[in-house]
Please model this.
Amino acid sequence: MDQIKNLSLLSAMCENVNSAITVTNPATGHVLGYVPSHSRETIENVIAKAEIAQRSWAKTTAKQRADILMSWYQLLMDNQEDLARIMTLEQGKPLAESRGEVAYGASFVQWFAEEAKRAYGETIPTPSSDRRIMTITQPVGVAAAITPWNFPIAMITRKAAPAIAAGCSFIAKPAAQTPLSAYAVTELARQAGLPEGLLNIVTSDDAVMVGELFCSSDKINKISFTGSTNVGRILMRQSAESVKRVSMELGGNAPFIVFDDADIDLAVKGAIASKFRNAGQTCVCANRFYVHDAVYDKFVEKFAAEVATLTVGNGIDNGVNVGPLIDANAKNKVQRLVEEAVAQGATISIGGEDLDGQFFTPTVLTHVQHSMSIVQEEIFGPIAPVIRFHDDASLIEMANDTIYGLASYFYSKDINRIFAVAEALDYGMVGVNEGVISTEVAPFGGVKQSGIGREGARQGLDEYLNTKYICLGGM
Model:
């Protein structure tokens, strides 16, 4: 941590060194620091202050909010290297990926600085000559979020930036494994001029308490959550009592499809980028690969050859492509899924090696059947199970055979097939001849049990706005 140049980021992270939550480096097991485990009373005080701050913030102009957001964006980019180093140390991903996430996270701040000035209302043609009808948009109020460890900066900025742009205040509970990035980006927001109480971080080793408090508080008007479908269900049930606005970005089980007319080299490149980014610990990464029988052997050969070039290690070291899994539980799950698949008849084409610590070699499995547990579960690790298919109809049926509907990918050169398959896949996002689809300018979100609502794009701002209808009579 002594290589962090911006000392204010260090002070923001380390002011509670005797507190309850220990933050460790997943690559080495070394302790990085400590953050507080806030009590219920402390969090209630934060909520109360956020409510007060929001009332004043809502009265500012869109341009005033945009100017502060743009200053925050610039500070994020000016401190990209420090933020990337913090993220790699506490989360494990390679430093190059962390730099990319900082830029990605900052892009939402920039985008919503611009969108703040586009929260338009409407003038609606009236059915009666003595009336005028119009709508305006207003902030929902205090918004709260629970964010995951796999993208500890982007998952905060993707939610906080539209909330602040809309005129809301925002409270985030980051994952206990990766709170340092959250404190660092919040410190930069403070330096950018964001008023006290507008952007708040609470940390606790009692996630159940925090979730229940966010959902039950009558001062919080909106809940945003990124995480597992099981936890999302709980938060939705708890929020129902007060009929809160919710947006949920939940689990995924993304199919990656290679048709017989695909550009195989392009498909392999996309597969590597989609599957092994962040050691496979992303909700939109390819989870199961369906490859047409006619090109199956060719794809597997080229795919395995590229996987063999990946370097596993500490993300802070040069040349590392795949970092550690986040904790022992994550590694145990990956080991279990591979062992079960092999027991059910799958073959390890490459990888499958259990390394010391929380590392696992990138693995390609062949002779995989659609019914296997490794296909049905979300892997969240560097494992690629590859399944043969013979015709488009059976492929679509298998691809849609899941409760999840977040991201999907396929490769084909046939324009008729491209439109037919893109429309037939029951997913919120479809990548066609592209393995990395996330961007601030497009709506991110899923269908089925992968979530509700959208983040990014203009739709991301709508999640934090209420539409008010005004009818003027007696004209």
User: Anything to note?
Assistant: Residues 309 and 321 are 9 Å apart (CA to CA). The longest strand covers residues 132-139.
